[in-house]
Amino acid sequence: MTEDRPRPRPLPEDPKVLFEIFVQRKFCDLELASVIHTLQTANLVHGSAHFGWRIISDRPGIVQGGGVCLVRAEPVIPDHCMADFLIVIASKRADPAVWMARLRSMRRLGRSVILLADAATTFISRTQIETGAVTTHWADAVILRETQDQPRLTENLSEFSNGIITAAGRAATAELVIGLLARDLPVSEITEIGRHLLLPEIRTSSSTQPFAPEAFHKFYDKAVSDALAIMEDNLSDPLSIADIADEVDTSQRCLERRFRAVFETSPGHYYKQLRVRRAHHLIQSTKLPLIDIATATGFGSTGTLATAFKKFYGVTPSDLRGKHRERVLDYSAEV
């Protein structure tokens, strides 16, 4: 009678695509969880361990996030063990020296780097971007614009320039990761991942960051709040600022002063931005002809819309619509 011996466990399948996730003390728990959970869900939907990941840090061992999250991180070995993607998780207390060096090593190999929120902000503030566009979380973008000349900074969820993706991060992280996976998975599996994650939609990278200030207008000065409500109700047939001031029972000069105190811009300029943003949403989410979108947003003609749209987004409405709508990322993350 032979002795029963425990059978060795089968080795896990080697992932075909490997993500390296860089964390530092006080990292953003939400972003790390979003990256890993999205990769786990992709493997579940795909039916195999196609995507793998490892967590690295300049201080290996147990690393605590900004909340209660604790992770065990591997050490960073300079110029060794490079993955297909490097994702740098946001951290307000990060020392960028190590991940910046890792970024340069990845770029020498032609591999992609993704910088989320605070990491994107640090990169943008320290690097002179001469070509392409960059983005970060809108709150940091406000500060960058006030302290530096950043003509290439946009309000999009993510941007790609010279092999580096800068992104808003936070709750939009899962959608970005889905976009990175899209080159390896069929559309049916991409949509299934979104369903598993209970996403109401999978936004494209060129989507404008949500929660514009007017969404919270009830918290503002009553005249400003009422003016915003009137603007939103009259996008297709814009009113003059003088008429809006009359509607909220104040003078035009007073309304402009209150508006600048909240938004640091004139009500007329802000009103135009609202209309351009609405046009952007309609272009991305509907198949309405551009002339109908121009009419619905008070521009009257496609030429007038195109001029305002390009000034705000850097592309014309027809260029934006001409991109492949089925792609999550409006750029290629491959070099």
Overview features:
alpha/beta; eight-stranded mixed β-sheet; 335 residues; disordered N terminus; 13 helices; 8 strands
In a nutshell, what does this entry contain?
With 335 residues, the protein is an alpha/beta fold. It has helices at 29-46, 97-108, 118-126, 138-147, 173-181, 187-196, 222-233, 241-247, 252-263, 267-285, 290-296, 302-313, 317-322, and strands at 17-22, 51-57, 61-64, 70-75, 85-88, 112-116, 158-161, 164-167.
Give your account of this protein's structure.
This protein is α/β, with parallel strands linked by helices. The protein is built from 13 helices and eight strands. The protein has helices spanning 29-46, 97-108, 118-126, 138-147, 173-181, 187-196, 222-233, 241-247, 252-263, 267-285, 290-296, 302-313, 317-322, and strands at residues 17-22, 51-57, 61-64, 70-75, 85-88, 112-116, 158-161, 164-167. Strands 3-4-2-1-5-6-8-7 form an eight-stranded mixed sheet, sandwiched between helices. Strand 1, helix 1 (29-46) and strand 2 form a beta-alpha-beta unit. Helix 10 packs across helix 12. It is globular. 36% of the residues are buried. Mean pLDDT is 87; it is low at 1-12.
Measured distance between first and last alpha carbons: 61 Å
Percent of residues in helices comes to 40-55%
- The unreliable regions are 1-12
What is the beta-strand fraction?
A: 5-15%
Major sheet characteristics: 8 strands, mixed
Side-by-side strand order of the widest sheet: 3-4-2-1-5-6-8-7
Q: Given the C-alpha coordinates, what overall shape results?
A: globular
SSE string: EHEEEEHEHHEEHHHHHHHHH
Quickly give the structural class: alpha/beta
Q: Work out the helix count.
A: 13
Mean pLDDT: 87
Work out the radius of gyration: 23 Å
